[in-house]
Amino acid sequence: MPRPHTTMRKIRDVLRLRLGDQLSLRQVSLSLAIPHTTVADYVRRARAAGLISWPLPEELADDDALEARLFRSSASAPRVRPEPDYEVMKEELPKKGMTLMLLWVEHKELHPNGYEYSQFCQLYRDWRKNSTSRCARTTKLARRCSLTFRDCVSPSTTSVISR
Prior knowledge:
The chain is mostly helical. It has helices spanning 8-20, 25-32, 36-48, 63-70, 86-92, 100-110, 117-130, 140-145, and strands at residues 152-153, 160-161. Helices cover 49% and strands 2% of the residues.
């Protein structure tokens, strides 16, 4: 569950109590009624931003400046993962002994930063569901017998009855 938004005033209090008054993370969390993990996160962000003492520099007197310094976007560029070749997967899966796990292992060897197994399977299922090049599977028996739509097999005699 995501944390509720903390006001910049409370974040300043965290930094003042931790950096200025040298209170422990748990003491700060008890005094401000916020989780100690949240306190640790704010202190870690402050240290990463070069803020190691209290009072804060004059240029950070504005809340917007402090927020920009503490919460720089860590997602500067989205990760690009190579897409699996779904057509090749479609051709390979019907082969004896071939599984999605084996295809994923091959994909991971070629692309170490590729999708993990669960996402790989989900992407394939989504592609297969949305694929326009679908055809009904025919069984070996149906191919041998070349049954048409109008023919049907009598279950008791297993003979073909034409209508």
